[in-house]
Amino acid sequence: xxxAILADAVERGERRAVARAITLVESARPEHRVQATELLxxxxxxxxxxxxxxxxGTPGVGKSTFIESFGLMLVAQGLRVAVLAVDPSSxxxxxxxxxxxxxxxxxxxxxxxxxxxxxxxxxxxxxARRTREAVALCEAAGFDVVxxxxxxxxxxETVVAELSDVFLLLxxxxxxxxxxxxxxxxxxxxxxxxxxKADGDLKATAMRTCADYAGALRLLRRRPQDPDGxxxxxxxxxxxxxxxxxxxxxxxxxxxxxxxxxxWHARRAEQARHWFEEEVRQTLLAQLAQPKARSLMxxxxxxxxxxxxxxxxxxxDLFASLWPEMEQTKLPESLDATxxxx
Length: 342
Ligand SMILES: Nc1nc2c(ncn2[C@@H]2O[C@H](COP(=O)(O)OP(=O)(O)OP(=O)(O)O)[C@@H](O)[C@H]2O)c(=O)[nH]1
Ligand SMILES: [Mg+2]
Prior knowledge:
One of its GO terms (molecular function) is hydrolase activity. By secondary structure, the protein is an alpha/beta fold.
């Protein structure tokens, strides 16, 4: 594969090239990792930036319907939209992928949109990495908006916070106890809460739910990256396509303010730092999976089991023989400690 040719095609915004490039960054094969790194390095020259919007919400809340309606609205405004899905649970059924295809049918047919479903069977670190690199590819391809969808379970909100500029939390209209069901962490990460399905019989409930969440948001600690009035709660209907233009206007205002105040750049810089550290961690772990390390670990663990060696001595011996140049004098309390110390 000629990486320079692929890079040019991605830069021209050719969707098939973007798809091929994402397949490349998703590959775990070492020779593909080398090519993927080269490709991403080459494309960094474009310096293009999209608005990265994270979107999370429980199953059935209307994420796919929202993306279809919202995406089509943006495309109608002349913007190019990429949609990426993250599913750290990897438990997604065939049914819901099928459902996505029909729910995003019109958007997926638009020449100005690109939709990439989540790859299955990958651990959280792998999913996060491939999504981050896929986002970078979409930015280089000149997409104006990259929507990153995740189901609202597990650590997906963290992944989205580490990938996105703006985080939307989609919620359903509900009775009073539903509010307690939303985890604090995900509430705190949200920039805009969208209470979906504010239509027909559900409209009044949606408005009440929205007021409840607006109240809950006011109780949260104020974040430096927020202008007055943020985070905020709004009602929308993805089905009847109402409130979406208001939501987009709020997103743009928020982005403009954060850019002007330096928060945008600061967050991206922090995300880059985080991803570098994550790469280091993953690389270290990968080293331990190498045959040499595995056989050494195997024999040492037998000696530990037999009581011939203490666990800590065996671990020190292991590291001393794998990385003899590394200092062994003081073991860090955790990997975080080593990495966070300047
Ligand atoms: N009344 C109403 N129904 C909606 C709205 N948005 C979505 N729905 C319906 O809610 C159901 C679930 O919508 P999806 O868009 O598939 O929800 P999702 O969050 O993508 O679901 P998963 O992919 O399974 O997590 C479908 O029957 C939609 O038609 C809305 O704004 N109003
Ligand atoms: Mg869906």
